[in-house]
Amino acid sequence: MIVHEKQFLDDLALLEEANSLQNAGFISKEQKDLIKKELPDFKNHSNILVRLGFFLLGAFLYISICGAVSLIGLGGEQSFFKICCYIFAAIGFGGAEVLANQKYYGHGLDDAFCLGALLNVGFAIGISTDGYELIIAVFVAIAAFIIYRRYLHLPSLLVFCLASAGVLFYGLFEFGAIGKTILPFVAMIVSAVFYFFAKKSIDNLKESYYYNGLLLANSFCLILFYLSCNYLVVRELSVMLLGNEILPGQDIPFAIFFYAFTFIVPIVYLIQALKTRDRIMLWISFLAIGFSIYTIRFYYSVLPIEVALTLGGLVLFAIAYFSIRKLKDNEVGLTFKPDRINNSNAILNAEALIVASTFGMKPQAKPADSPMDFGGGGFSGGGSEGTF
Fold this sequence. Notes:
Elements: H1 6-24, H2 29-38, H3 48-73, H4 78-101, H5 109-128, H6 133-151, H7 154-173, H8 177-203, H9 211-228, H10 231-242, H11 255-276, H12 279-299, H13 305-327, H14 346-359
Helix pairs in contact: 1-2, 3-4, 3-5, 4-5, 5-6, 6-7, 7-8, 7-9, 8-9, 8-10, 9-12, 11-12
Region (Disordered): 366-388
Keywords: Membrane, Transmembrane, Transmembrane helix
Transmembrane segments: 52-74, 80-100, 157-175, 181-198, 210-234, 254-271, 280-299, 305-324
């Protein structure tokens, strides 16, 4: 199913590991270059800005091809309009196949054709079904999964996750008010099931090139699980979908459960992330805690916003200060020491910039060397050897 040679994918994993080892200082740049020379490599770009530039170039190329086809088919008028998106989607799949055979992988050009194909699949099914959301989500999910399995294209896997969530939501909408009522609980259960399925797949993984995809699906399930029963999300959806009017002094059904869920789940994420040293879950837990605070502030304004921000900043400062004091001397486990594998000087550079701006320091130009050569004295003075 995968168009790329598996040996190339394995070699790409080795090159990524070599880059990590070089950044950590375990091997030199010469050793890393020697490894890169010995292993065949894809045409790809790790720099996100370079990849974005090639994506824009690929999008322009894709649109140009579709425009040329449109000029040819304009004579068909209405009949061409009904099938044009299918033709554009086929162009996207064909371009992705050609680029994959030319060893393009995560380059930017392939991103434009893969995502363009998915976009046109959605438009094509929407035109054919008069905008039937469930059918659109089903076909987009299928197409996105095929592209991921064929080209290991991570953005397409993200589209698959979003489209699959759309299939779940729109599928429950088909059951009317009952489906809309049980939507939060079904989404919570489904995301939990797929989270543990992805987690088990990662633990039993043999092909390393599937790791990033499973990690992305795993993280998406964590986010969906939290949002499925977040109080703000559930309350606003109940008003939007069911038309419930919540008067002052009233609340949604099972409000206590949703309140507890909104605050307990981020704490569980945080504890589990610290226990398993899962950095992605740690960041998700921080975002979830922030959104939980926003959820309460959205409905209940206990303090003025400036007072709440000041107290929140003091609390965060105290937590950060005592956490650093506790962890700064740890050599293993949780520690505040720099990570050698993910070495970054961004914080140090920011610190130097802040100090320089605070004290008004400016970079000093190195003065030119003096044309007079001092030194050479044998006793106390410079040049005091009794000679000129």
